[in-house]
Amino acid sequence: MTKPSLRPADAPKPSEVTPRSVVEQRRDWLRLMAGAAAGTTLAGWAGREAMAQGQNAKLAAIKSAVPGALTMEKLTSYQDATTYNNFYEFGTDKSDPARAAGALKTRPWSVAVEGEVNKPGVFDLDALLKLAPMEERIYRLRCVEGWSMVIPWIGWSLAELIKKVEPNSRAKYVEFVTLADRAQMPGLRSGVLDWPYVEGLRIDEAMHPLTLLAFGMYGELMPKQNGAPLRLVVPWKYGFKSAKSLVKIRFVEREPVSSWTRAAPQEYGFYSNVNPKVDHPRWSQATERRIGEDGLFAKKRPTLMFNGYEAQVGQLYAGMDLKKLY
Ligand code: MTE
Known about the structure:
globular, binds ligand MTE, alpha+beta, about 325 residues, eight-stranded mixed β-sheet, Sulfite Oxidase, Chain A, domain 2
């Protein structure tokens, strides 16, 4: 078996085609929508709009009040965030998902929630869009390969869904399973990972308010290459925890084995917390390259403990040896 690997960062194209003004316009629009319906849920509107307009529909959102949810750093351009992707179901090159994911059919779509819960169920996408008020969260996301982005996501805390299904006392972990459809996903022909792509969190990590079920970004429904129609975003963990195109959420008693852990257990542990002090066996994790800051003289940034979310999530790991439990 060839050794699978998330490849170390290769040089991205220095293209920032979407001007900042366009991003700003999108954000103004968001603010307008949020202001117009202050205090009310806009998710119903978003759901109808999504149906009416398909993939290009705008998602309205209220700015999040969750502590740590609105990083003030400069946003990554929409162009970079949607053309430099990891979504191995569509190929392993950074440009493959933008090229190959267009054919992904994201409607109808449903997510099965099962396992150790009192109220399992199959949730239709439209029901999920309306399940809780949409919020905008501006998160840093750092890939294990050593690059990072700052993206304005739209969604709501996964905890909202978890509360609805009522986990029982055996629900210690949550397993996330994503779509694996050979007819739509050319990357499944490669054996780079065991499909479907599976990830997992401890139940308290899944319940943390920063853990986001995201339906969109930059004020729009999720682009396919970024994990349409819904994905996880766990900002204090390496990007591979943020599973795309979710179809199943399972509550389990034992620690799930993620696709990356199965492929290379010595490189990708269950926790995968961003930790500059724990090197990847093949490279340092002390610094990162912010996508878009790739000029000749651009300096790498120091990587922050828990990706900068230590104040919010540090206590989840109190007393744990994070070098062992990497
Ligand atoms: N989800 C699925 N289903 N398949 C994948 O290959 N790649 C992961 C994660 N989620 C991946 C996935 C990795 S390695 C990263 S860094 C992020 O998605 C990248 O998200 P982005 O392309 O939106 O930046």
